[in-house]
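Quick one: co-fold with hypoxanthine.
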Amino acid sequence: MLAIMGGTGLTQLSNLEIVRREVARTPYGEPSGALTFGSLAGRQVVFLARHGYGHTIPPHLVNYRANIWALKHAKATALVSVASVGGIRADLEPGVLVVPDQIIDYTWGRKNTYFDGGDEPVRHIDLTHPYDAALRQRLLTAAARAGEGAVDGGVYAVTQGPRLETAAEVNKLERDGADVIGMTAMPEAALARELDLPYAAINVVVNAAAGRASSAEGIRFERIEDVVQESMGRVRHILEALCQD
Ligand code: HPA
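Sure, here it is.
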């Protein structure tokens, strides 16, 4: 069963035929909301809105451990994350979809592991490739089949938020090799790996990162809202195509 984690702009999947909702309890507390089970293009899917169904949970307060644990224990066999990002690279303009292949983690103070001491022996996971290669490929193929362009590969810088970055910070992230900036891919990707849940993402570029050419006058939030609305329809198409493969 495919799990979909919806980010900003995707608090519900309008093309999902909902069968039931389930409030999950986990050893790590409560997930961001009830798990929504349903079918998408005839395939069983479980959906969760990362920031809560009312979009009230900021990135640094999302209970990532509970979210991933709940999806794994709902018998998800793969997790696709949908997340809005700012574009650093010039060609990654608002409206562009990216299937990232790397992550740099700048977050701090988040509960970022299930291996937190106690009786369990220490485990170090291999995160060389934080996104699952096969699932990435399926996403790219689905995007092509849906007739939606998606950029293959990109480095996602994960900032702490909830504030956006300064222009100098964006320059630093670019020097570090980042292509897009968001606030949620970590610890999500690492936790999914700890539970052996294949994880890949569709990023929606919703703004040019702070200080970049087209945002010279500052970041315009009304414009972001428009891009989010338009782009999430395309993401829904891709997810539908993914369910048909
Ligand atoms: N920075 C960080 N996170 C984001 C941005 C951004 O510019 N846009 C959407 N999520």
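If it helps, Helices lie at 64-73, 133-145, 167-176, 185-194, 221-243.
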